[in-house]
């Protein structure tokens, strides 16, 4: 009969371990979801900030269409000097993220 008791104990430990594993998997899924939310919030903030920067350079931005703004951006970013500056900016060392 001691073998039955040992088997029951091992089964309880197995159930306990499986429960811990399920909890860890669920915790990981929750953390991944939080990370996606943070990334989305950061992107939204960046888009709003940079959109505001762009509008600060436009005269009467409310009168311009999206196509007008796209045309301006295409012209600006296809210039050789703009491309060179962009390349230099991208070659800088990336700041370390905490």
TrEMBL record:
Pfam family, one: DUF3847
Organism whose genome encodes this protein: Enterocloster alcoholdehydrogenati
Name of the featured protein: DUF3847 domain-containing protein
InterPro entries xrefs: DUF3847
Coiled coil stretches, renumbered: 4-41
Keywords: Coiled coil
Upper taxonomic lineage: Bacteria, Bacillati, Bacillota, Clostridia, Lachnospirales
């Amino acid at each position: 009969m001691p073998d039955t008791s040992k088997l029951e104990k091992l089964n309880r430990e197995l159930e306990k371990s499986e429960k811990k594993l399920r909890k860890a998997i669920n915790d990981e899924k929750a953390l991944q979801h939080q990370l996606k939310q943070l990334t989305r919030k950061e992107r939204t903030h960046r888009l709003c900030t940079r959109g505001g920067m762009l509008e600060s350079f436009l005269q009467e931005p409310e009168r311009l269409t999206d196509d007008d703004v796209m045309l301006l951006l295409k012209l600006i970013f296809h210039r050789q000097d703009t491309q060179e500056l962009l390349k230099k900016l991208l070659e800088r060392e990336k700041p370390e993220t905490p």
